[in-house]
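To: structure desk
From: M.T.
Subject: fold request, one chain
Message: Could you run this one when you get a chance? Sequence is below, nothing fancy, just the single chain.
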Amino acid sequence: MASASVVAAVAVALHVLAAVVWIGGAFFALMALRPASLPLEPGPRLALWTRTLNRFFAWVIASIVVLLITGFGMIFVVFGGFAGIGLYVNLMMAIGIVMMLAFFHIYFAPFRRLRTAVGRGDLAMAARQLNQIRWLVTVVLILGLITIAIGSSGRYWG
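Reply: Done. Structure tokens follow.
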């Protein structure tokens, strides 16, 4: 039983850290970097965002891997399988999967087009792609904050 407790403690810690990296990064991008970058000329602003998102998205991919491994690991080690999980775990998992799908859409569609447009110097197209990314990241951020609230309070729902 002690080994299950150690696995659970490590899994929860890694799960929370991965969520903090992803959702904290989204919060930073929208609430700090975006307003701070608005005074920049379009060329430097779009180049900054492309470089920033390129680095951040690598961390998001790593976070998703950790979230999936630790989440499903806890389902089987802590809860004994899907039959043992509560409503809050089901909600976290469902919202998390929607968030992951939204991220991969961002990564493989508007972000790819943003990089291409910045590389070509097509600032109008790049700006449109960045705006689409901003709206989608806003949705992911809201879903992430809801998921964090569910995950941190769910075990006390009764």
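Reply (cont.): Helices lie at 2-37, 42-77, 87-108, 110-120, 123-153. Let me know if you need anything else for the meeting.
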